[in-house]
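Subject: Interface between my chains keeps coming out wrong

I've been trying for a while to get a sensible model of this assembly. When I model each chain on its own everything looks fine, but I need the whole thing in one frame so I can look at the contacts. Pasting all components below, labels as-is. Any help appreciated, I'm running out of ideas.
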Amino acid sequence: MPPTVEPSPADAAALAAVSAVVNAAETSAPYRADVADLFSDYSFGRAWDEMFASPGVTRPAYDAVIKAVQALDADELKARADSLARSFLDRGVTFDVGGVESPFPTDLIPRIIEAAEWDVVSRGVSQRVKALEAFLADVYGDRRVVEDGVVPQRVLITSKYFERHAYGIEPANGVRIHVAGIDLIRDEQGKFRVLEDNVRIPSGVSYVLENRRATMQVLPELFSGVRARTVSDYPAKLLQALRKAAPRGISDPTIVLLTPGAYNAAYFEHTLLARTMGVELVEGRDLVCSNNTVRMRTTSGERRVDVIYRRVDDAFLDPVHFIPTSVLGCPGLLTAARAGNVTIANAVGNGVADDKLLYTYVPDLVRYYLNEEPLIDNVDTFRLEEPAHLAEVLDRLDELVLKPVDGSGGKGIVIGPQASKDELDELRTKVLEDPRGWIAQQVVHLSTVPTVIGDKIAPRHVDLRPFAVSDGDDVWVLPGGLTRVALPEGSLVVNSSQGGGSKDTLVLDKVRFAGDNDLTAEEPPPVEEVDTDGDGSIPAAALPAQLNMRSPDPGPLAAQDQQQQQQ
Amino acid sequence: MLSRIAESLFWIGRYIERADDTARILDIYLQQILEDASVEDGACRSLFEVMGRDVPADGGPVGTREVLGQLAYDRQSSSSITGALAAARVNARSARDSVSSEMWEALNLTYLDLSEQRRRAERVGPHRFFQWVRERTSLANGVADATMSRDDSWLFLDLGRSIERVDMTARLITTRVAGGATGPTWTTLLRACGANEAYLRTYRGRVSDRTAAEFLLLDRLFPRSMFFALSRAEDRISMLDRGEEGRVGTEDAARRLLGRARTGLEFRGVDEMLSDLPGYLESIQSACADATTAIGTRYFPHAVIQWVGKGA
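Reply #2:
Try treating it as a single job with all components included. I did that and got this:
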């Protein structure tokens, strides 16, 4: 600790401005005047703030963040934020908006999730994915769920993404949802709730990996103060899941990642995953189907492909069955998949499970298929098909959020309290025309986290998209996930296409440093070797206990110097 | 590897080399113009010719401005430095999974910095721009060298680079032929290739136009000599061909073309070559073009549309 000195007049003014904050502080984290200054614009609304329990009182999870930020002044804060932004541009970590590559803005200050909180989230996400997996098998199978009256038949067949072509395609290891992204928010009480499910081609995981790499580089002092769970296992886990999804009888499958191409918004992610998994990144024109098999054109002729991790929508995947003019896919893919000669991951037709009306049934699906209570609740949602609900919603349009059931990327969402009268009138017409096309939810004030805005720190609303990977035996959830931030003040829309940014998301390990006194030490979890073949790791015993390495050869000049000195 | 990726790597190699060599050629030309402004129009016209570009046809005198505008800063044409660097980056982006991250970053940063470097060149003169281009292309080459496995992707990259180097060295030597009395001297050409010191060390007292030409055309050890680059291209082709030697000759068209060009150099003395240098250089250039076509036919066959939907 630096010795306490009398504050200069300027500092004193800053101190006065935040005196409420400082006086209320009951935790040990001491404020310095300039740090307090960074937070001087920090306001509190109805939302749950993840850093401050009340003005001036930080939650313990954020101790390390406060310590790291304390060391910075406004200039340094800005310099580091700029360096972060520049590193993303240099590495080409971008997403395309209308053909222009834009960097995806990343905030300097990570979001922290406590181990115990994460435990619930992780189990809850995994539970949800298992229920949706069972549901899809049922929908494209016997439809017990309809027979037993859990989900009405009409909800299924009116879903835009219900896909009759998916009938008869049996996944080799029973997995249709190889990768899922479940969008969560924290409500005003800090409770996690599911906002929507994404089980078609969820994207964003590359930003999780890149955010961690970049944040560690620009804010190393933070990472020396916490023990965060790693995110770097993701590509290996995904690769393992894809290998296990290979058609029967293929022990060493050839896996490819199918991208729509360099102008797709998520192209960076496709390249990152292909590189880190060591698989080919192919475009539709690289593939050719014949005799119910899929091959890719290589410099040494055509080569058989066994598993396609596709990042192309169903509609563009196979012009024979879907949009006939699509050149992003490959004619014949679906037939090859039906013949069991290639696995398409995620499976075709998954969209029926992330339809927003179906979302309202997911808690029932968890009970029905798994015989468990849902660990994470939905946001309270109205089904507009039910006349009583519809009437209530139409009455309260200006209080609710309305979402089209098939929308993604925040498209078409109307937030009642922020909408004009004309917008509401237009909405009313649309909803009356097609009640099946909409759901209504209470406005949830998403939780806020401290975010660098200019050279100050201010609260901004966030959501969280954890990613789950399913290999048929287990559903693994990547620790953390993508935290998206709504950058405009007060905005509740976090989508990257609408002014959203992101944050590194640290899940604290159960074991902290010995210096942390408030937690009982547990055994560190065993380091999990991700080894797809099961025999590639080096046993620790093979390494000698002590290494006797020679120092680097100094070369003749050094020897000459010594001789000259001796003479 | 995927044909599409192989093609991208081949062209990344070519574009990087093209940017580097074009910067070298422009640099010596513009220095020469600085020394003697009276040659500006003639030198610039011959430069356009050497680079295979049409002379701007508005009838007026052609000067440094036109040369820089079209051969250095034109974003649209891949035969300008800026255009070649942008094209290298586009190709690297579409082959992003096969190009190492460091290589990609080197090319991406170069691309992002282009406008700034141009602005700087407009203040302090184009020489600084050319120097920067040489540094950035050296960096890209060095990073590729240090981070890419010597598999087919490397072979395609290096093949592209070698063929482009043959082509550009031919153009560089043509500047001497086309320029006549006012053209760059052989020593200038050696400097442009960074070869002058190696040349002086090799030939010591026997410095003459003849030995300089010999060095640039035929030296077995200097990496920018035409012979060296041609042999390297041939070597890469035969490695890609997996050395399947038949009893008679070779099946691979590109290998035949490059081999013939190489033997044409190797077994003909420098005097014979100097007697018809323009003819020679032209035949080497067409060998490079034909070899590129042959490589494309064999390794990068373009997808044939096999299914056309009714909705079109």
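Reply #3:
Confirming on my end. The first helix of chain B runs from residue 3 to 35.
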